[in-house]
Amino acid sequence: MNMTGLISHSSIIGMESWKVQIRLAIQRSNCYHKEGHQASCEYGTSLYMLLFGLVQIVVSQIPDFHNMEWLSTIAAIMSFTYAFIGLGLGFAKVIENGRIQGSLGGVPTSNVADKLWLAFQALGDIAFAYPYSIILLEIQDTLKSPPAENKTMKKASMTAIFVTTFFYLCCGCFGYAAFGDDTPGNLLTGFGFYEPYWLIDFANACIVLHLVGGYQVYSQPVFAVAERWFSKKYPNSGFVNNFYSIKFPLLPRFQANPFRLCFRTVYVVSTTGIAMLFPYFNQVLGVLGALNFWPLAIYFPVEMYFVQKKIGSWTRKWIVLKAFSLVCFLVTVVGVIGSVQGLISAKLS
Known about the structure:
It comes from Prunus persica. It is a multi-pass membrane protein. It contains 11 helices and 2 strands. The chain is mostly helical. The protein has a single domain (3-348), classed as Amino acid/polyamine transporter I (Up-down Bundle), CATH 1.20.1740. Strands 1-2 form a two-stranded antiparallel ribbon. Strand 1 (244-246) and strand 2 form a beta hairpin. It is globular.
């Protein structure tokens, strides 16, 4: 659970950095539309990180995962919306160019080492694309039976992976086909597209709403673990266990808990502070993706499968799965190395 909390906390920091890039992209989009594409449209980042943190302090008081259906639904709708817009813009750009940009060799570098760093960082970025293993059991716990929760979750996971992979591949491939070696790290915030500016603004606004929900989806399991632990550790503490009814005008009655208010506020403040120190989109995603990928998405599920199915050591299935886990571990290692190197280079520059 400690590992889960640490990685979830790290993923939240990545979302903080991403959200700021998006808010700045909306401002820059409007600036480029008014002043021209060559204008110097630079804005600070700290204010928007603080505003996002303030919003999350309020939203983090949602009691638990079971009360988040409305927020999760909004986040999912926003995700589909900006994905369709990004895909459509990339496809339209390829048609406008009349040819496919880029090459099989990818972005050229001055030496082999730089190419390896970029390849390692890309592995971390790809690993970040499938981080939902952190919250899979929490989602399954909200399902009703029959049918059995694990069967429903298996179908939902297969559908989610298929849809996610489809959009990632389409957006990535059409983005590279549209811009080639000049493809930005994020198509909607890196200004491969300038027009129609209102559509780009709308897509980025959808990402902001998506991240508000995404932040909470990843935070709620951490909140639940911490609050359960403290409740068992201090069963007689009123600060930890007592709830007080509060009524705000025009809002339903709210049950407040002092420990929940303090712990969740400190958690949000910590992620906001770290994100302000490292506001680098691709590099942060690479580090977080690599850290998240092997432990939670590969190692623990494989080991649990061995125990559940009573797989003996050195059997064919045991060897295949152990080899698979080892390969994924190596991917994680090189992803972390490449992304940390990119993060340090970005910070020093």
